[in-house]
Each structure stands twice: as structure tokens, then as C-alpha cells.
Amino acid sequence: MDDHRRHLGRGFNWLGGATVIARVVDFATILAVLMFLTKAEVGTASLVISIGMMIEALDGLGTGDAMVQAPVLTPHVRDTLFWVGLASSLAVALLTLLAAPLIAALYGMAGMAGYFAAIAAKQPLVAGAVVPMALMNRDLQYERIAIVNVGATLAAALTRLGLAVAGAGAWSLVIGFASSGFFTLLGAWIARPFRPGWRPDLPAVLPLLRFGLQSMTANLFTQTFKNVDYLLVGWFYGPAPLAVYRVAFDVAMEPAMAVSTLLNRTALPVFARVAAVRDHLAQTFAWSLGRVAVLVAPLMAGLVMAAGPLMALLHDENGHSYAAAALPLRILAVAALLRTCFQLLSPVMMGSGQPGLAARLSAATLLLLSIGVAAAGILFPPRPGIVAVSAVWLVVYPLLWVWGRFYLRRRWDLRLRDLARAFRVPALAIAGQVALVLVPGMLAGDDNRIRLGIVIAATALTYAALFLYTRRKS
Q: CA geometry: angle at 455 spanning 451 and 456, to 5°?
């Protein structure tokens, strides 16, 4: 158990640190890019990128997850999976180009179709990186994965920023998104050199492909779930209100989504190793839940307190403020904490050989969210509608956690008090964080820059205290 926790801790430290660095860079450049784009351009690009993320879930046919959990992986099987994944990505790219005019017609945006050329170009790049990334993950080479992720994120962020400054408009966001596939491919092949042989043997990989297809289905549901609100908000309200929602959502949820990626990459191979012993997996899950709460909770609390001044200071190319995004941001920040912790169930199911259950859970989550967002779109006009859509996220995850609690109790004998114990230290830390903000914040008055600086300082001190505590505890 100590050895598995050491691997998990190393993964959280390396990938968690890399995630923080990557997201800080990504977040800073996105805020800078927003000043060079109109809200309509941001909304249009958001729709294209959201659809692109759903398309990307099809790449590789889930073979990356299949390789990570496989007890034995021969070079012959590995090479065959590479060619299968690459061939499927080319088919997905072709279908993307064919569907682009239909999607543009559906949303009534004639110029939207051209952006999908960048989305199609990304698919084989992503597929080409699947095998080397899976091999590094399988070998627990978290340091190399961290370097690849940070390098790709930084390069894509600089690409996006450079294009925005040059006046590329919505293309800056779309090409920035697509370029991350190229930079990830380049970094992965440098970090884990790989030369596939050319002797495909489909019968040898059929068991892994079956697992991979179930994993791909779960990933597709997850990506659809992550983006269905953008699609519906864009459908009901148009690109400019979507931009307001997208800014609030990205600021709140991007850290959560980054941690979810970290969880899947770090926890899946470890859960796969301990799944045979019920108590070992239960203890590893509870320990991981505590680490996730420590990593995410203070940031979400900081966003709740910083939402007002941050959004008031943010303007688009025409000088219009994003202040309307402040309340949705507060709501989504609370939902993000619940979402990130709940996402830890996915690698538990995958690692214990239950990809079908993970897919069904993703489908149920997608259904709940879709119904809620569609109801908000039908019942409310744009401004209160954005708040209502944000509130849907806050309603969905407590419902899902009710099911998750019964699953963990029945399957892994994890009780409610075991789960609650994971949040004890983060809750105390947040109480201190609020106290650090409260009095200085009242003295700052209406100066948004000072108020924002106080929250940032308090959040940094909270993380420093938690770091010292966890290090002493270890």
C-alpha cells in the first residue's frame, strides 16, 4: 500500500504541479486573448472547439486506456494498436469535414464551417501521440508526461496569443486548440521514442479493442457532457451570451477539468494494480479524494471571492465588460469542486475492469445535464438563463454523489464518514482563507484591483500552509 501511495503521490506532485503551471499559463493567455476578440467571435470559436473536443474523444478508439490496464503488452500488439488508431483518426477527420456544412447550417452561421478544417487536421496528430503517452503512463513516467503537457500547453497558448494580437479573430482560439495536438505529438515522441512496425494483426488486439471501444464510449459521453451546455447555450441564446457563459465556465471549470485529466492519468494505473484487493483500493480512493480536495478546494473558494472584481476588470475588444459572468462564476466554482471529486470514480471503474459502468454513468450524467440546460434555455431569457444554466451544474452533482455513495459502500465498503474525513483539512484551510480575505477586503472598498490582489494573496498563503501540512504529515 505504501508503494502504491508513493506512486500516486509522485503522480499528483509531478502532474499536479505541471497542471497548475500549464493552467496558469493557459488562463493568463486566454484573458489576454479576450481583449482582442469580440464576444461574438469568442462564442463562435467556443462552439467549434466544443464540437472538436467531442470529435477528439473518438480518436484512437480508446486504445490508450486499454494499453494502460493490459496485464501484458507485446510490441506486436502495441504496433497494431498504433495503426488502428491512426486509421480511425483519418476516418474521423474526413467525417468532420463532411459534417462541417451541416453543423454551420444548424446554427445558422455560414462562416462557421471553415473552422472545422483545423479540427479535422488535429485528429491524426492526437492519434499519433496515443501510444507513446500510454506507454509513459503505463510505466508511471509522470515526470516525462508532465514535461510534455506543460510544453504543449505553453506552445499552444503562445500560438493562440500571437494570432489574436495579429488580428486573427476566432481563428486564434480554434488554431490554438488544434495546435496543441501537434505540440503534444512532438513532445510525446521526443519523451518516448517509438517506431511502429508494419505487421498489423487484428485478431491479436481484439480483446483490447473491445475494452477500448467501451472506454471510448465513456470518453465520448464525458466529452459530450463537458460540452453539451455550450452547444445548447449557443443554440438558445447565440454567440455573444455564450461568450459570457464560456468565460465564467472556463475560469471555474478549467482547473477542475485539468485535475480530472490528472486523475485519470495518475490514478488509473495505480487503481488497476490494487483493484484485486478490496481494502487496498478503498484506502487508495479515500487517500486520493483527500489529495484532490486539498488541490482544488482553496482555488474554488478563491474564485468565489474573486469573481466580482475579476469579471469587472475583464473587457472585450469593444470595451464591453464581462461583469455579467460574476454570479455564474461563483455558482460554477462550487459545482467544480463537486465535479472534480466525483470524477475520481471513473478511474476506479476503469481500473477495476468496469468500463461499461463508467460509460453508463457518463450517459446518465449527460442526460441529467442536457435536460436541465434545455429547460433553462426554454424558460429563461439570456441573462437569467446563463445563471440558471450554471445552477444546473450545482444541482446535478449532489444527485450523482448520492448514487456514488451507494456504489462505494456496496462495492468497496467505503462509508460516508470515510469520505467526509477527506474534506476535513481542506474545510479548515478554507475557513482560514476566508478570514484572511474578509477584513482586508472590507477596507479595500470598491477598488477591484486591490480586492483581487487580497484574494490572490490569501489563496497563495492557504496553499503554502497546506503544502507544509501535507509534507509534515507525509
A: 115
pLDDT in tens, 148-207: 888 888 899 899 999 999 999 999 999 999 999 999 999 999 988 888 887 777 777 777
Q: What is the pLDDT of residue 163?
A: 94
Is residue 59 within 8 A of residue 89, CB to CB? The reply is: yes
> Collapsing DSSP states into helix, strand and coil, what is residue 384?
helix
- Per the structure, how many domains does the chain have? 1
82 falls within a domain: yes
Which of 363, 373, 298, 305 shows the shortest CA–CA distance to 337? 298
Query: Residue 458 domain-assigned?
Result: no
Q: Residue 207 belongs to what domain range?
A: 2-422
Residue 17 confidence (pLDDT)? 56
Q: Which residues of the chain have pLDDT under 70?
A: 1-24, 142, 259-265, 442-445, 474
Residue 364 belongs to a domain: yes
Amino acid symbol at 114: G
* CB-CB contact of 286 with 421 (8 Å): yes
Which pTM does this prediction carry?
Answer: 0.77
Examine residue 118 and state whether it is found in any structural domain, yes or no.
Answer: yes
